[in-house]
Amino acid sequence: MERERMVEELSKIVGKENVLSSETDLFLYGYDASLFKAKPDCILFPGSTEEVSQIVKFCHREHIPVIARGSGTNLSGGTIPTRGGIILHFSRMNKILEIDIENQRAVVEPGLFTLALKNQLARYGFVYQPDPASEKVSTFGGNFAENSGGPHCLKYGVTTNHILGAEVVLPDGEVIQVGGKALDNPGYDLTGLLVGSEGTLGIATQLTLRIMPKSEAVKTMLAIYNSLEDAGRTVSAIIADGIVPATLEILDKLTIKAVEESVHAGFPLDAEAVLLIEIDGLKDGMERLAERIMEICRKNNAREVKSAKTEAERTQLWAGRKGAFGALSRLRPNYLVCDGTVPRTKLPEVLVQVMEVSKKYGLTIANVFHAGDGNLHPLILFDERDEEELRKVHLAGSEIMKLCADAGGTISGEHGIGTEKMKEMFFIFSPQDIAAMRKVKKAFDPEDICNPGKILPEVQA
Amino acid sequence: MKTEQLKTLFYDEVAKCNHCGFCLAHCPVYTVTGREWATPRGKNVLVKAIIEGKIDWTPEIEETLFRCTGCKLCTQTCFPAVETNQAVLAGRECLVDRKQYPKVVDRVVEALETHFNISNEPNANRTLWMEKLEDIPDHRFQKEKARVIYFVGCVAAFYPMAHKIPQTFVQILHKADVDFTILGGEEWCCGFPLIQAGMKEKMQKLVEHNQEKVKEIGAETVVFACPSCFHTWKEKYQTNAELLHSTQFIERLIGEGKITFQNGADRAVTYHDPCDLGRNSKVFDAPRNILKRIPGLNLVELEGNRQLSVCCGGGGDLEMIDPALSAAIAQRKIEEIQRTGAGEVVTSCQQCIRTISGYARKHKIKLKVRDITEVVLEAMGSPL
Amino acid sequence: MSRIEKLIPKLKEIVGETNLIQDPEKLKACSVDGKRPKVVVFPGTIAEVSKVVAYANEQSLTILPMGNGTKMGIGTIPGKMDVVLSTLRLNRMTDCDCDNLTLSAESGITLGEVQKKLGQEGKGYFLPLDPPHTLKATLGGIVATNSSGPGRLIYGTARDLIIGIKAVFPNGDIVASGGKTVKNVSGYDMCKLLIGSYGTLGILCEITFKLLPLPEREATLLLPFVRLEEAAQFGREILQSQYLPSSIEILNGMAVKKINPPIAQQGNYLVAIGLEGVAESIERQVSEIGERAKKKSALEIAVLRSESHSSFWKAIRDFSEGLAEEGLNFISFKSNILISRCGEVMGSYEKIAKESGVDCGLICHSGNGILYSYVFGGKGVRSKKESLLNLIREFSLVAVKNEGHPVVESAPPDIKKRIDVWGEPRGDYEIMRRLKKEIDPKGILNPGRFAGGI
Ligand SMILES: Cc1cc2nc3c(=O)[nH]c(=O)nc-3n(C[C@H](O)[C@H](O)[C@H](O)COP(=O)(O)OP(=O)(O)OC[C@H]3O[C@@H](n4cnc5c(N)ncnc54)[C@H](O)[C@@H]3O)c2cc1C
Ligand code: SF4
Ligand code: SF4
After folding, report:
1. Which chains touch C (3 or more CB pairs under 8 A)?
2. Which of B114, B66, B87 has the alpha carbon at shortest distance from B319?
3. What average pLDDT score do residues A51-77 get?
4. Would the CB of B226 count as within 6 Å of ligand 2?
5. Domains of chain C and CATH, by start
6. Would the CB atoms of A329 and B18 count as touching at under 8 Å?
7. How would DSSP label each residue in B319-382?
8. Does residue B195 line the site of ligand 3, with CB under 6 A?
9. What does the pLDDT look like over A257-279, one tens digit per residue?
10. Which of B46, B73, B196, B326 to mutate to test the pocket of ligand 3 (most atoms within 8 A of CB)?
């Protein structure tokens, strides 16, 4: 369809002021936090579910792709309009609709920043557990679509464990409610299926979340190592000892250096790795558990283990962790995060293999990751303006995925497949597995309207 | 500036932006518009695309680059600390070179070239604010020699809403027995609006004039109640004189025992850090130290304070270029102030006062907005 | 030769002569809502399951997957029922990786057996699910019906614990989803789709769970209250506090009577608080929660430990089994409601039951808003049919008002025939039907028994 007519039709739905279609704007909605780029046909800012529904009906009728977008911070090319189409930017639908303390639920619009809800909940002594490092800017729509995780997801589970219901506009424009404030509705768990579907099965216009009272006590510890492998070994050992702390995060030497240069978290510069450990819950028995953990650290060659004495010290340590990607990005203009995940017993060996990949390609790779979940984040640093380097980065990234897959792991723990890793899906799935997923897509979106060209690679029949 | 120069000077800078998007949570222009063009990320991407020849200087790019308050909260919160505002200003220079910029800018330039002030009035009018003052010395604060110069600034001199600042500040200085003068009709605009307009080469004449005046008067110190004048002087002027903001100077006078506070009532106030004073000139403590000395006053911090203070909407010529956008940002600021529960906000900038109280007045919002000089004079026990 | 006649030799070819039941008498034991299958087949490997299903699909024969049959009563009365596919020979623990805190096991093994084995591994582990039918329920049955128990308050349900499933889809494809990493967003989360799908989308063959080490200490607080409001209010108070109980159950007098816990004050409303975890925290909660209960006029504070603790929770979980053993005729009802409304809903249910002249036992996972009701019709179910139908309607209305969507989990066929056990249709059923159609176009897996006519 001609752009002019498209804009005219869509303006009728959302109002002229909420449509953008200039060359400049198309350029501005052609990227996200990944390395991919493409151009949409126009950008809309819907203000209500009804508008979203009408827009999607229009797209359905005219066979135009529609791609939902929050803050565009995803790392897998999830919002890249690879086949053109309409971007729905949810910045206007960003309200907290309800905080229902009695029922331990919150209802939000998809454009709301994750942290914005948490800040409001804090006033009631409540928390929403998932804590992606990007929480100050990631939206609930994005969290929902990517099934985002964070350090505390080790104990509390990822986004999917905290989204209980959603209002969803299906690819034909129909609006349905899945799940809800009450648990266990009969029928298939569509909420569970939709979380992590990267906007390819439908567009969320409201989300119902689980919220819970804040823990009584928390204790944060830092173990310092002269070898990255030992840090990895400690994590395996803690889990094997049957302890599931709230978080187990590793930062390697390069990361420590970058972090210290930008936020001064108090990590020692001469360490090869630090392990950030947090336990929470009731205060009773916490000291004993902490002692058990520290003992395991020491047994695995930690050269020092200390605990945060004040809330300020704790905040500082976490600022270091949360700022790690950013701090690393000071070293080189770009980075590629490989989101591979492995069984926790495999951490030490996979870490060694990752460093071998780094050597092989002559690329700088930093490691800062959710170790307790086995979720690696090797960060390959480079300058995308150097094409040769960029080419190597893609090869190295794929190789890291492969070695995670070969270790019995998977190619994405929390950032999604998007445009980035479709090829690598075959590292872990058989054509039959993919075919089954395609059936799901087909049931929801037979015309392939919603965020087409993502997640599922073509399967040769 | 030419596009080629832009490449030499800024390509590496904008390439540092890795699209992480964290700045979306902070940029006041994005907060109110919700459009990608408004984001620091978007601005860096566009400048990079221009440099790489992937996009032309479209009208939308002009619109985008002229909508940035210069608050630099993005750089503060950006891990690679990309100097987005620097890239934006350089972009504006390129646009000016192409004669592609908002027409209102020409009016200001013309005013500055003919009258050396932004108000396009005879420069002698710079002292009209003094008319309301009673019992002032015969020299009317204009001396040939003085140890201190108080540089009033265009906004405080010409906009009645801001007159209170010079009115109170001269009284404070007078009471504290400071040997000071103002430049009166010989004060010329500091040049800040030209930097913002992308015409920084035009400011040289103003800079030289003002520098010369300092020499003539033989001042050791120049004091500013306007953070933007202060910041501009610090960045662009060459002088041996010490440059201080009014809050720093007042703090010093308190320390020397020349200012003491008698008056005060129990009340909660919050403090708004002006971008050019706080984040951009690193003056955070002086105003707080002053407020802490005032009897009965309880300072409640804003959610975004010190380095993380959010712009009022008045920065970077935005009020001139897009008043509606500026007002929308002011509205957010007021909401943030209201969340503290304090009925009064103190700041140290005439522009912040104008934007915040202008919005409050227009929308009938009950809120006391005061410059720190007023609060100080009141606490010193003098009626205004 | 009819399709069925051809079927038998084919099945024998796949699973071997002996792994088949054809004897009508024996088949009777596998009947569902009074209906009998034509054959029961016991494949021994996933590959065999795949072959059986592929063949049935080709021949358009229907398959009912079955474990130990503990929950076969849930769902609409089956229509066509050719083959029962029993998972009982798929009963291995395939990858018990306690160091990684994960377990992969085949679907025919019982949870009881799994727990026993895990308890003996290293320092002792468990799979944190505590659904009904403690000993008999198989993993496949539990997961397919998304069965859960009181411990879900702290441990969650199958959707929170399962990280991988290998299932045979209706076309015979062996489809793997997830894996053995605790975090995984590669592709669609097919595990979620399969959990609670009642065997309508695929036959669950191997499931991977997250494990936990056995808790250091366990205890139970039994706190009887005279008034329902007091009990409910107390449950809410604990839920909103920073204490971390593993379960907060509220029982009405009738349920208490059946369970007969070791307390003096029978017949009142009972708040039962389960505690599991670090010794120090358990002791503190026992004393502090007890203290609070005293202030809130609990009639007594009984603390159960070790043997009496476990047998109390077993009795709660296996409540319906107990009723069946008593030979009682009953209707059971699962209502999901807002957690703050448990007390009110329990009150309304008691009132409705009383008005219908029937007894009713209520057990509520009050921290999750899941209420199980057991209505005993006594002998004359038939004569009371109309009033029972009316009761079901009223129960449903109350639950719906509290944002729930109740399900009749078991009822005599006479009653089942007259109602939709899955309750009023929801707006998302249409898309569910589309999923079913896409995945099982011929409708061979457990057809017509599930919500939305699936
Ligand atoms: C520095 C950095 C750190 C990060 N740290 C983490 C981390 O710790 N953990 C983690 O999990 N991720 C992390 N991420 C990735 C990213 O922030 C998350 O994936 C986040 O959830 C994306 O949110 P968003 O609002 O930016 O979504 P977008 O990027 O705008 O969109 C992401 C996907 O969601 C879809 N989508 C958006 N809104 C909707 C909707 N309403 N309905 C349906 N689909 C929708 C889009 O189509 C797209 O597929 C990080 C990213 C960066 C740049
Ligand atoms: S300007 Fe900084 S914070 Fe914003 S996207 Fe670029 S790198 Fe990230
Ligand atoms: S300087 Fe301020 S207004 Fe300009 S882009 Fe940065 S945050 Fe936005």
Report:
1. A
2. B66
3. 97
4. no
5. 1-214 (3.30.465.10), 217-317 (3.30.70.2190), 319-416 (3.30.70.1130)
6. yes
7. HHH-HHHHHHHHHHHHHHHHHTT-SEEEES-HHHHHHHHHHHHHTT---EEEEHHHHHHHHHT-
8. no
9. 999 988 888 999 999 999 999 99
10. B73
> In Å, how far are B267, B295, C423 from B348, measured between CA atoms?
19, 19, 65
Give residue ranges with CB within 6 A of ligand 1.
A 32-33, 67-75, 78-79, 90, 110, 132-134, 138-139, 141-143, 145-146, 148-150, 198-199, 203-204, 325-326, 414-415, 451; B 20
CB atoms within 10 A of CB B232: 26
pLDDT of B70-121, one tens digit each?
A: 999 999 999 889 999 999 999 999 999 999 999 999 999 999 999 999 999 9
Domains detected in chain B: 3-97 (1.10.1060.10), 104-254 (3.40.50), 261-380 (3.40.50.1860)
Is B15 part of the contact surface with chain A (CB cutoff 8 Å)?
A: yes
ipTM above 0.85, yes or no: yes
Q: How confident is the model at residue B317 (pLDDT cuts 50, 70, 90)?
A: confident
Tokens of residue C327, six digits: 């030979």
Q: How far, in Å, CA of C239 to CA of C218, rounded?
A: 18
How many other C-beta atoms can be found within 10 angstroms of the C-beta atom of residue A457? 17
pLDDT for residue B136: 86
Write out pLDDT tens, residues A158-208: 999 999 999 999 999 999 999 999 999 999 999 999 999 999 999 999 999
Domains and CATH numbers, chain A: 1-214 (3.30.465.10), 225-247+256-321 (no CATH), 332-406 (3.30.70.2740)
Chains A and C touch (3+ CB pairs under 8 A): yes
**Residue among B19, B46, B80 whose CB faces A32 most closely:** B19
**Residues lower than pLDDT 70 in chain C:** 1, 378-382
B25 within 8 A of A111, measured Cβ to Cβ? no
Q: What is the whole-number distance in angstroms between the Cα of residue B61 and the centre of ligand 1?
A: 27
Q: pLDDT value at position B384? A: 43
> End-to-end distance of chain C based on CA atoms, in angstroms?
30
Q: How far is the CA of B83 from the centre of ligand 3 (A)?
A: 10
